[in-house]
Design brief:
heterotrimer, A mainly alpha, B alpha+beta, C mainly alpha, B: alpha+beta, Ubiquitin-like (UB roll), Fumarate Reductase Iron-sulfur Protein, Chain B, domain 2, 5-stranded mixed sheet, two-stranded antiparallel ribbon, elongated, C: elongated
Chain lengths: 150, 233, 111
Amino acid sequence: MNRNWLRAWLWPRKGNLGRWAYTMQRVSGVGVSFYFLAHIIETGNVVGGLSMWSIPAYDVAKNSWNNTVDFLRNPLFDFGLVVIGFLLTFHTSNGLRLFFSEFGYGIGKPARPDYPYRPRSQNMLQDLIIWLSAILAAGAAVYALNILFG
Amino acid sequence: MEISLLVSRSAPKRHFQDFKVPLQKGMSVLDALIYAKENLDHSIAIRYSCRMAICGSCGMKVNGRPMLACYTQISELNSDKIKVEPLDNCAIIRDLVTDFAEFFSHHKSISPYLIRKNTEEQGNPQKEFLQKPEEVEKYLQYSYCIKCGLCYSACPTVAADKEFPGPQALVQAYRYIADNRDEGIKKRIDAIDTAHGIARCHFAGTCSSVCPKGIDPAQGIQFLRRYTLSLKR
Amino acid sequence: MLLHYLSGIGILVSGAVHLALVFFFGSYQENISFDNSVFSVIAVYRNFAFALTLELLLIFVAFHAFNGLRVILIELYQGKKWEMSVNWILTAIAAFLVIYGTRTVLLARLI
């Protein structure tokens, strides 16, 4: 069969901007999902970790949390948070664009096609919002760098 | 002035064969392929018919992008190396000819004809069905489909999901639903509102950017989505 | 599906509150400390409105993320067995995360 999903999903070289937004939405979604998994496990340590299923003593919880924070006070993890901030902001902003477009707003109206047959749904508004999403994501990354690295 | 035409051949295994074709003014990719077939190698397999972008036979990937060979001028490609490959997402029969059986069966699955409850009316019509210009505008754009398969080949979901109907079938479903002469909306919504149906479109929009007739399948599919979310009847 | 869109909007609202609490009020270092300031971890859990927001965020994100992963996996490969196993395994992991997160919120309020 002549189907190559890997190339079609991850490397749309001759695609329009919306195709790149599709790829980035998927990649950012998967990345943030893994962060979610790690975050729930990590914040579980505020009451003493995976083995604690009854009310913990104050000091046990405090020590467990402080150990976790010290373990994570690491430039590698902080940089990971910056990347996650970038991906999350892009996913949210592009996701809002998809929310409105998929309900039928911002994609133009049907009309008689005339040469040169430019598609009305791939219009300036869509391109603008995709670029805006990228800019907001970069801004979030810079803000996170500022907070985490001083 | 010569251009280098790299044609994808399938026998004995997939490889590119280079043809040197003399460039004439106004030459399209199809003209170059016919020159190569007539004068350089008679065994190139290629589908074409009307040579004026109305039959939909000559779809192929030109320099990586799905286009109609008869509709693409060599001069608009801005390159003297033209790489021609068969369309993605369809089984290759030979060289540039692909198998459209799956594409047509997806199209049939959405009942691409007007459905009226009164079946006798179509065999024995008494008067014309009047339609206002505004009502025609709602579906006219989507009715120009020539079934060339470029959108099907460009769609990233079709590349992965074998059960996805593809942008052409979905926008044709909308063409009939938006037509106020049609009374078969329930049958078509049931055909597309499945786990691998319209919900698997993610508005990448590549279908619209390659359509040679300006149909804009991406737009039609988003309008169709409201029927599956029960926001419209 | 409609639920994917609605949970996305839910994440937008409750996530904005969560991020504001950690990054915009007070200093970051104090907000991730155990109990030092009014926006520290235990203090946020003890406030009913904030804890409810966090719990809702957990449910929305678990649904939205695992539904998204489910969509990607069933587009890759089709077939009854594959789809059933993807559904079960992802639901199980999402359910575990919701239960574990709810346990964290409840126990933190009772410390």
